[in-house]
Design brief:
The complex is a heterodimer.
Chain A lengths: L11 E2 L15 E5 L12 H5 L5 E2 L5 E2 L9 H5 L5 E5 L11
Antiparallel strand pairs in A: 2-5, 3-4
Chain B lengths: L2 E5 L1 H11 L4 E4 L6 H13 L5 E4 L3 H13 L4 E5 L1 H6 L1 H9 L5 E6 L13 H4 L7 E4 L3 H18 L3 E6 L8 E5 L2 H7 L16 E2 L8 E2 L5 E2 L2 H30 L7 E4 L6 E5 L2 H15 L4 E6 L1 E3 L3 H7 L5 E6 L9 H12 L5 E6 L9 H13 L4 E3 L8
Parallel strand pairs in B: 2-3, 2-4, 4-5, 5-7, 6-7, 13-14, 13-16, 16-17, 17-18
Antiparallel strand pairs in B: 1-8, 6-15, 10-11, 12-14
Helix pairs in contact in B: 1-2, 1-7, 3-5, 7-9, 10-13, 11-12
The chains are: A alpha+beta, B alpha/beta.
Chain lengths: 99, 398
Amino acid sequence: MAETTKGPLFAESGPAPGEAGRTGDWRSHTPVIDHEKCSQKDTCLLCWLYCPDGVITPDFPLEIDVEYCKGCGVCAEECPRNAITMIEGRKTSASPKRS
Amino acid sequence: MSDIKIITANEAAAEAAALCRVQVIAAYPITPQTPVTEELAAMVERGDLKAEYLTVESEHSAMASIVGASQVGARVFTASSANGLLYMHEMLHWAAGSRLPVVLACVNRGVGAPWTILNDQQDSIAQRDTGWIQLYCRNNQEVLDTIIQAYRIAEQTLIPVMVCYDGFVLSHTNMPVEVPSQADVDRFLPPWQGQGLLEPEHFVNLNPLILSEPRPDAQGNLMPGYMELRHRLHEDILASLAVIQQTDYEFQQAFGRGWGGLLWGYRMDDAEHALVSMGSLALEATGAADSLRTQGLRTGVIGVRAYRPFPARALAQALARVKTVTVFEKDVSYGYAGALATDLKAALFDAGISVKFSGFVAGLGGRDVAADQIVQAATDAILNEPRYGWVDVRGASA
């Protein structure tokens, strides 16, 4: 009876970006990185480690994939240098050019 | 070589789990289940049983732990009673929904409030709709044998199995129990290979959020919808009727003892009246049937062993020729009637069988049910108007 000819017995999926759709749509606040405050050292990377959505690419300067960032703010909370600020609104870019 | 031991049902359950070579046990003690956990903990401590024994902080965690262990391929065991089992409720759904061959011994106890530590079957009946197979045992030997059978059934169907037996009546009562040899149990129950779900090189989200409609996942594979998975579980539990029957038959071939598969009958061949019950109360009813026969009422007993899946067709067949059916059970669905009576009446209706049908709630919270009380209630039900009633309610509320 455990055969799968009648289809799956239970739900499973491969972990992948976009598995739950474009979750960036859910965001009310957007993380903005101040790259000058960021240590830019891979001995830190706490934001990358803590990000529950895995949307931070661990290369410097850091990039946040706003297609899937839900705006939880964990990265901003964990950054020891206060280099990440949550700004109100669903911006399309997490690291806007400074004016 | 088997061995006759004078043991309680709790000891029989622990012996059975050890004979099944369970690899992970997680349990939280609660009366009357506690001796099961003590026995198994002692076996692991002595090194007699090579298993991981997790001392968890709650029943919810106990079930969550063995769900995880089962997902990586371990054979797992737990036991609980009453409010402990109720605290597991969410995780019972989780085990069934994950299609894991978890086996749980439910030592039946009445549910608080108010507190009682004594026996009825309200605790497991309240778990009826969690997607588990439920088997009810009538004596200590059946408890040992049914736990061994439960792993075969669970691993073949990928449906968890709850083996239920009455607290104190069986759990703390010594009886002779034939304990089979390890070699014989190993032959009957080969090691479980697991589902190969989680390997270091193979990442997978188990039980992710899914939608009601089937939809492609990020890799483009079509994922089933929630409703399709529920339907599949339901269909497979129905199909497990045959597996339960077959497993008991094969057990009989291997060990020389069978328990009737889905149900068992006592003096039913020429019976005009049937008493239907579950667990040790069904065994008590056999004495009542003997007494009723001395009064000229040709009575037999049907013991329901598998309550979920409900053996509706087998029961209708077994009761096709009787004039009256009287159910005795240690549970109630408040506001209607006992769960077994309700289900059985529906099964007879579906089979086009119209009989005089009564249902009695008895023995809640350890209230002793004597054979003569069953005789009295059954006589009334057989000779007078059929009804739903309670046995032996005393004082002002009677």
